[in-house]
Write a structure and sequence with these properties.
37% helix; binds 3,4-dihydroxybenzoic acid; 11 helices; D-Amino Acid Oxidase, Chain A, domain 2; binds flavin-adenine dinucleotide; alpha+beta
């Protein structure tokens, strides 16, 4: 099998890249190790930055998002049983975010790719990347029990944190920057209307809690739990009791309960692999970087990477100049590190670490008070949350 751009992974990064390349008249093949149902059901991100929404719309993938996505003009910070709303448009010159689940973004992009785009092979596992330093990189893969090879001009690793593409960068070239956290998120889906019309990020002595949503009838909630926790260790009522405690306020706000339909634990990690390119191999999305989820940045970063890459590949085709491809890693990393910084700040602002001292707790509260009382501090948060410009 032969193509121009071989894409490993059909998460948001791989699917959107294939779509953007198709629109630019560049051929690609996407290899995805899982089956379609799995990719369409995997519960993850929920928040799209304004820039991500604009990109999906421009790619012709915004129709259902525009109908079903929920525009949010702010978030609420909860601490010391009080509530503080951050008003995005008022602080950023009109920017907002949209609640539209990653599962739905993937469903829309898969349907478009299968209808209009190049081959998208499910249950096709890339086994590695060969010849990245030469002119004809290759991806050996296994599809329906058969081994095959995809010969390409470029390979893009969109295969997430656990993928194979990053491993093709020689050890002497790779630089890795990382941090782990002593806590994780227990996430649940609940068949109950969200108890608030915007997201609530809560800092509590017992740990962080987040109230989010998937639709006007489905809530998505998260609890900080110790790293290494298994979802089965928490009973449904125990989860609701703990959410209630951490989200409690001094006014008459109430958390509505409903049946839980899904439960899972997400570890928290900060990770950046530099550079994001080696020869004709490019890394995009979680394959190159991970942020802890508190800032809602992971999916949006993946979108930024593939927009930058699609533009660079189209530029090379049209002009013969590799200038933008050569700048790919540096361009993306500027935005990646801003998202790393913001995600780290949001995480340490709201979570409680096992070795936190009373001094650390007071500092956290002082940082929150600062956001609640200074327009400059609040604007900093609002600008980062609604998204950094694409480079
Ligand atoms: P992935 O979605 O991981 O896709 C990689 C794909 O590659 C997968 O389909 C995988 O099966 C496939 N693959 C792997 N290895 C191979 C192989 N060898 N061969 C072929 N295919 C392979 N981000 C936000 O922006 N906002 C949020 O609100 C947010 N909330 C989150 C909440 C949770 C609980 C979690 C876990 C994440 C959250 N994120 C959020 C992060 C976001 O989900 C990820 O950053 C995003 O999925 C990255 O997309 P990707 O395409 O790079 O990687
Ligand atoms: C969701 C996830 C996040 O990481 C976040 O910061 C906000 C919302 C969500 O899944 O809805």
């Amino acid at each position: 099998m032969r193509t121009t751009v071989g894409i490993i992974g059909a998460g948001p990064a791989g699917l959107l890249l294939a779509r953007l390349l198709h629109r630019a008249g560049i051929e690609s093949v996407v290899l995805e190790s899982r089956d379609r149902a799995y990719v369409e059901r995997r519960q993850r991100a929920g928040i799209l930055e304004q820039g991500t929404v604009d990109v999906l719309r421009a790619a012709g993938a915004g129709e259902r998002m525009d109908r079903e996505g929920l525009r949010h003009d702010g978030i609420e910070l909860r601490f010391g049983r009080r509530r503080h709303r951050v008003d995005f448009p008022g602080l950023t010159g009109g920017r907002s975010v949209t609640v539209y689940a990653q599962t739905e973004v993937c469903k829309d992009l898969i349907a478009l790719q299968l209808k209009e785009g190049g081959p998208l092979l499910f249950e096709a596992e890339a086994l590695g990347v060969e010849g990245a330093e030469g002119d004809r990189p290759r991806i050996p893969f296994r599809h329906q029990g058969r081994e095959d090879v995809l010969e390409c001009e470029y390979v893009v690793g969109c295969d997430g944190f656990w993928g194979v593409a990053r491993k093709a960068v020689p050890a002497g070239v790779s630089r890795v920057f990382e941090r782990s956290y002593p806590y994780a998120w227990l996430g649940v889906l609940a068949d109950v209307a969200p108890s608030h019309d915007e997201l609530v990020y809560a800092r509590h002595e017992r740990g962080f809690a987040l109230l989010s949503m998937r639709s006007p009838a489905v809530s998505r909630l998260y609890l900080q739990v110790p790293a290494g926790t298994e979802a089965g260790q928490w009973g449904d009522e125990e989860i609701w009791d703990e959410l209630e405690r951490r989200l409690e306020t001094d006014d008459d706000w109430r958390l509505e309960r409903g049946p839980l339909t899904q439960k899972s634990v997400t570890p928290m990690r900060s990770f950046v692999h530099e550079p994001m390119r080696h020869g004709r191999l490019f890394l995009a999305g979680d394959a190159a970087h991970i942020v802890p989820p508190t800032g809602a940045k992971g999916l949006n970063l993946a979108v930024g990477d593939v927009v930058t890459l699609a533009r660079a590949l189209a530029h090379e085709r049209q002009t013969g100049s590799p200038e933008l491809l050569d700048a790919y890693s540096t361009t993306c990393l500027r935005r990646v590190w801003q998202a790393e910084r913001f995600s780290y700040d949001m995480t340490t602002l709201l979570h409680r670490a096992p070795d936190d001292t009373p001094f650390d707790a007071r500092l956290q509260l002082a940082r929150l008070e600062r956001i609640a009382s200074s327009r400059a501090a609040e604007t900093d948060l609002a600008e980062a949350y609604t998204g950094f410009p694409l480079g």
